[in-house]
Amino acid sequence: MNITKNTFGELNSENVYSYSLENDHGMKVTCITLGCIITDIIVPDKNGNHENVVLGFDDIDSYLNDSPYFGTIVGRVAGRIGNAEFELDGKQYSLPKNENNNHLHGGPEAFDRKLWAAKEFQHDGEVGVEFSYCSPDGENGYPGNLTVHATYVLTNNNELKISYSATSDKKTLVNLTNHTYFNLSGNLKNDILSHKLQLKSNQFLELGENLLPTGEFLEVDNTPFDFRNSKAIKEAIEGNHQQIQIAGNGVDHPFLLNDHHNEEITLVEEQSGRKLTVETDEQSVVIYTSNMMDDSFEIRGTQARKYLGICLETQGLPDSIHFPHFSPCVLDVNEEYKTSTTYSFSVL
Length: 348
Prior knowledge:
The chain is mainly beta. It has one domain (2-347): Beta-galactosidase, Chain A, domain 5. The chain has helices at residues 60-65, 233-237, 242-246; strands at 2-11, 14-22, 28-32, 38-44, 50-52, 73-74, 80-81, 85-88, 91-94, 103-104, 117-123, 126-135, 146-155, 159-168, 172-173, 177-178, 181-182, 196-199, 203-207, 213-219, 231-232, 252-256, 265-269, 274-280, 284-288, 298-299, 302-303, 310-315, 330-331, 337-347. The protein has a 9-stranded antiparallel beta sheet with strand order 11-12-13-14-30-24-23-18-21. A 6-stranded antiparallel beta sheet has the order 17-28-25-22-19-20. A hairpin with a 3-residue loop joins strand 13 (146-155) and strand 14 (159-168). The protein is globular. The protein starts with a strand and ends with a strand. The mean pLDDT is 97. This is Aldose 1-epimerase.
């Protein structure tokens, strides 16, 4: 196993570094200090061909100007906060609005656009990078000086393990996720509509017209959102369900997970034979089928378009600060936010 450090580019006169983690089987994960972005995941198909299975760019400008959160850590709070405001211990907080009337993925110039400190390491059977960032009190409207760590570990079992931790000196909100777009066809040969998804989930969150949760948990039975048995993404989208239409003719919904660290999320692309298994301790996963992606930019020579990638965003429920019956995303002083997700790659 080995790790290679290179200069990826420059931001505000500071170097942006890339770290390429490689195991003994040729699986390779490359990430950069800008936003902890995963730029590449190289894995074999059923014939042993190694190809990239995530969406990303090769330069800083594209990430700053075109990226819909490709590969990044988003925070302090993933997803939308309605009306860009919340109340905590009787105090009202206003956040910047960066998606209509909402606050999305931590706001403008959030974790995805920060330069993180990085420390590489290597142990028996694994190699990794620990990223860290100190978010000052008041950044994007959030209270508390928040110290965040995100650690990426590659194992010899073709697993990418992502773990998060955070502490704050004031009560605040935290709900982190990684926003990688996966496409298992390899090097964007096809879109993700024929990918087959399976979820251990009986319920999903209903969304309103503004893509905010209504607070209602809906049963997946007899809906396009029933992925308890593996089915192609296009089957869900073709269902013409009202919730599919609301999300731009696709999926952009939180699913409650029935199980944890037990193959609760699987994604398969049969032509390449690649399989991705996701296991987490998080309560839910937001499945996003890139329905909002426009064609105004290119991704390494491929024209961007809808359904080119799928995000599997393991996290707490979005906008939970406004719904007492959701699990809270409140982090108290002297508490530690801690969660992890493992992405395992294999072939059929």
